[in-house]
From TrEMBL:
DSBA-like thioredoxin domain span: 6-201
Keyword Signal included in the entry's annotation: yes
Residues forming coiled coils: none
Protein name per its UniProtKB record: DSBA-like thioredoxin domain-containing protein
Species name: Immundisolibacter cernigliae
Pfam families for this protein: DSBA
Keywords: Disulfide bond, Oxidoreductase, Redox-active center, Signal
Length: 225
């Protein structure tokens, strides 16, 4: 069995990361020697990003939810993403940083597994429950739901060190040449980015993940990785 350190670059807002996280969890359960390191790659680093890309917040929400979420719905294994529900909500499409800070605060308290559990719960809040994941109350509820010490999580969430940690992940992503997520990077070298799907994400299938791992195992056996 091939031991490997996989860096998983992701954003809570990404519907493609929602699917990739599910598949990666299944993969790791079959390959427990694989270590997953979670990296923040926020699509929207401030509230103005989507208004710079789109004519107005309403247009941004309309395209992202109906087009990109809709594409993900058509290929997901079970119906978890709910575009119609999100379009019924009266808030603008959220930006990434609050939820990314929440993930880093979870990591501070509970390590990589805590980051992953919180990330998945926040994605559920965003894509299934269609809550506003830029709202601290929603993010706090996610912390409670995954069993974190909420008071400690709140202190860590508000600590400016979280922004430094996110910035470090972004610097690493730039060095790797990451341009969209989800992306997996094995041992700092071999990338799996899946098929480009919509504008904002890659589609990583279980089959592609298994084939990538098998390729790396053969490459290591022959001294090429």
């Amino acid at each position: 069995m091939l031991a490997m350190r996989i860096e998983f670059f992701h954003d809570v807002l990404s519907c493609w990361c929602f699917n990739a996280s599910e598949r990666l969890r299944t993969f790791v359960s079959a390959h427990p020697q694989v270590e997953v390191i979670h990296r923040a790659w926020p699509l929207g680093t401030d509230r103005t990003l989507f208004t710079r890309l789109f004519p107005d917040p309403k247009a941004a929400k309309h395209e992202i939810v109906l087009q990109h979420w809709g594409d993900a719905v058509r290929v997901e294994h079970e119906h978890r993403i709910r575009p119609e529900l999100m379009m019924s909500r009266d808030f603008d499409y959220p930006y990434s940083m609050p939820a990314q800070r929440g993930c880093k605060a979870a990591e501070k308290q509970a390590g990589q597994q805590g980051h992953w559990d919180y990330f998945d719960r926040a994605q559920q809040a965003h894509l299934s429950d269609c809550d506003n994941v830029a709202d601290p109350d929603v993010l706090t509820r996610c912390a409670r739901d995954v069993g974190l010490d909420v008071n400690a999580w709140l202190r860590d969430f508000e600590d400016s060190q979280r922004d430094i940690e996110i910035g470090m992940d972004l610097g690493l992503a730039k060095a790797y040449g990451v341009v969209r997520v989800p992306i997996l990077i094995a041992d700092g070298r071999a990338q799996l980015h899946g098929d480009p799907w919509s504008t904002f994400g890659y589609r990583i299938t279980a089959e592609r993940l298994d084939a990538w791992y098998a390729d790396l195992a053969r490459a290591r056996q022959t001294g090429r990785f």
